């Protein structure tokens, strides 16, 4: 009796999973474009926007590809990831072009100049065929404060090499960028330990 | 005249940023707990749950810490990240305990046995003081299908060493787990290239 109940449960499980596998296989078979560089946007108020971009860098590195990273505003942050990625030598090119958080500088002209330098570096990396992935970390912040002309930035991202993957991170992604993107994820804050009075933790926040 | 407008704009910017900086400083000063291992959950239907966990692994590695990773169901995936992390030798301990996607196996008893083995490994890593971070990749899937007893899993996560960070990934995180967690992010799908007929890309999806 109990054995029969177990068998029925196992059979239901088998049938459900077979159906899911079949749906999965069909979905994969329905894809028509084999290779395409993706424009990826990580936005939202939650954590993981830059971190997931660095995780994708790791994946690309594991496939033997080169990754370029331009930081638009977090000059002083992500030093731990940078230290770790240094292990991969020439496979990673890292450029910290920002001057700390924008609310640390309080100088509009300097912020704009820094954003323009960072964007020039971004264009350079996107044009270099040795890179399979270019991460434009916190570019959304530079766009949000109008440090860079939105229209020409989006146009340049759309006109990138067909095989180049680009990841743009930062809160408040512009609708025009989302429209141009292939893959957009909103990292949504559900619960944060800062609210419970816990300080930023080494290895987690920085 | 135009100069004066520019100056006013710069002044407004300076004042706004100074206010933000002050709010930021106050927030940081308000934190009372210096060091605390966090229970972090990455859930949601969007991309970046596992990837952001691997990005945090990179950050921990950059700070000289050891990271343990247990994969509950994605046996065949994340091979590129695993290859890349192998570069860090003993700093990373990686255990693929799943047997591929659950809908590939269609065998309930085998899935449960695999989940139990993975959980035993997770407990072992959590008890080993050499690890600063343990990633339980796709544990949420094992909990969702009741492959593991929710109550005792959540209890074990809550009772972990006070200095241990744990990241649990996977869709459909159980409310009991979210309740126990310090930091929860929902990776929300905004737009996906699969919908436009683009196949999974090497270095991005696998």
In terms of topology, how is this protein built?
The structure is a homodimer of 206-residue chains.
Chain A: H1 2-29, E1 39-43, H2 49-62, E2 66-71, H3 79-85, E3 92-96, H4 102-105, H5 108-127, E4 131-137, H6 139-144, H7 150-158, E5 165-169, H8 175-180, E6 183-191
Parallel strand pairs in A: 1-5, 1-6, 2-3, 2-4, 4-5
Radius of gyration of chain A in whole Å, from Cα? 21 Å
The CATH architecture term of chain A is 3-Layer(aba) Sandwich
Structural class by SSE content of chain A: alpha/beta
Oligomer: homodimer
- What is the overall pLDDT average of chain A? 86
Number of helices of chain A: 8
CATH class category name of chain A:
Alpha Beta
Widest beta sheet: strand line-up of chain A = 3-2-4-5-1-6
Cα shape of chain A: globular
Q: Would you count the extended β strands of chain A for me?
A: 6
Major sheet of chain A: size, sense and barrel closure? Answer: 6 strands, parallel
Distance between the termini of chain A: 57 Å
GO molecular function (chains A, B): ATP binding; corrinoid adenosyltransferase activity
Subcellular location (chains A, B): Cytoplasm
Pfam families (chains A, B): Co_AT_N (PF12557), CobA_CobO_BtuR (PF02572)
Biased composition (Basic and acidic residues) (chains A, B): 1-10
């Amino acid at each position: 009796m109990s054995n029969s109940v177990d068998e029925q449960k196992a059979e239901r499980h088998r049938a459900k999973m077979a159906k899911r596998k079949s749906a999965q296989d069909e979905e994969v078979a329905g894809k028509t474009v084999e290779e395409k560089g993706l424009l990826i946007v990580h936005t939202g108020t939650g954590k993981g926007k830059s971190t997931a971009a660095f995780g994708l860098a790791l994946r690309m590195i594991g496939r033997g590809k080169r990754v370029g990273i331009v930081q638009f505003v977090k000059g002083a942050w992500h030093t731990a990831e940078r230290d770790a990625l240094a292990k991969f030598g020439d496979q990673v090119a890292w450029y910290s072009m920002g001057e700390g958080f924008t609310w640390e500088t309080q100088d509009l002209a300097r912020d704009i100049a820094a954003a323009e330098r960072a964007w020039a570096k971004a264009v350079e990396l996107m044009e270099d065929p040795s890179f399979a992935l270019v991460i434009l970390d916190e570019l959304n912040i530079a766009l949000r404060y109008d440090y860079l002309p939105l229209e020409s930035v989006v146009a340049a991202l759309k006109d990138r090499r067909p095989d180049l993957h680009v990841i743009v991170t930062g809160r408040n992604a512009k609708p025009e960028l989302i429209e141009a993107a292939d893959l957009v994820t909103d990292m949504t804050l559900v619960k944060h330990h800062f609210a419970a009075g816990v300080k930023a933790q080494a290895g987690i926040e920085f």
